[in-house]
Amino acid sequence: MATLTAPHGPAPVAALRWRLAAARTLAWALLMGGWVVLGALGHRHLPLWAGGLLPLALWLAAAAVAARVSAGWQGRPGAWRAVALMLAVASAAALAAVPAARGMALLALAGTAAIAWAGLQVVAARTVRALRPARGGPLLLPASLGTALGLSLAAPGVASLPLAAPGALLAAGLAIALLLPRQAVRAGGCVAAPRPPASDGAAQLAHPVAGAAWSPSTLARLGMLPMMAAMPVMAVWCSPLGAGAGAMWALHGAAMLLPAWLLVAAGRRLRPGAVETACALLLVAGALAWWWLPGLQAWLAASLLHAAAWSLAWAQPKPATGAAGIAQPLPAAGLPQAAWWAAPAAVLLLGWGLAQHGPAAAQAVQGMVGAVAASVWLRGWLQRRAPGTPAGCRSAAGAS
Prior knowledge:
The protein is mostly helical. It folds into 2 domains: 13-194, Growth Hormone, Chain: A (Up-down Bundle), CATH 1.20.1250; 196-400. Helix content is 70%, strand content 2%. The chain contains 15 helices and 2 strands. The protein has a two-stranded antiparallel ribbon with strand order 1-2. Strand 1 and strand 2 form a beta hairpin.
């Protein structure tokens, strides 16, 4: 059997790739489970704190800080395993104690759960990067499986179990500890520091061929953040439409995954700028849904359309290789670096808007995203039609 020489010793390529796929699945499950569990925690127990979005804001802030701090810490695998287990136990214990807590104790437990969850999420992402010698394994399948696992915590039969989320966290922490490589490498090896919080969006800001500073795909990534933060609120407010929270999350999970699968299947057959055009159309359609449909139906339709736009932006092929450019599984991955630090403030502002103005706050955000996407795409279209524009520049303008 072919072997791959890694810093932690020779290992079969297939075994390393399966471990990498398992680590990716866990990381995505923690990511989506964080949106579900922490969002529901805030909506049920802390509705007066930023409209119930305070735990999500703390989670985003803690993830950004943990990613930055862990980038400078090489640590032995044993230390990383201990950190993963301690964070899983802390978050699980805090979540289990939340229903019986009141007042400031409730706030402290919710904050502990959010911060520890964020730390575990960063350790999971680091585990994925620790298995980098197995690069070349599947990307979309583990992300899809992890998303399904995370969103399953919103299913009626699971969400009603008080220890479902704590038990899932403990299992995830143990699995991450088992998946970490046995031997650390101080520099440039398999336990390399995770990338700084700048990801695909930052690359687009710096690379004129990949896209302009405000491309429709970048806007789709930005628009996904408030949509996911508002999901627990929307799931409750849209329940008169006949769908519970589990069904709402399932619909959004489908909107987040199916377009990505179709895009990966299309591969190199896509024309330059096709993904940007599709993202712009979906974002504009989501904004217009508020005028086409009544109230809560418009919110649901706009969110699904914007989720589909994010799916295309998330999985669009990299210009150089044609491979799917799927971002790392962290809460704000795929966004410009500045957005990592602005995300918690944006979520708090959205929570205040939802508490004060209801669905009109979501309408304002989605309408603004759609309007900017339309103007950006129109600018790119005019640039492509400008006389004397070289063919290479037309391709670059098509992505703007």
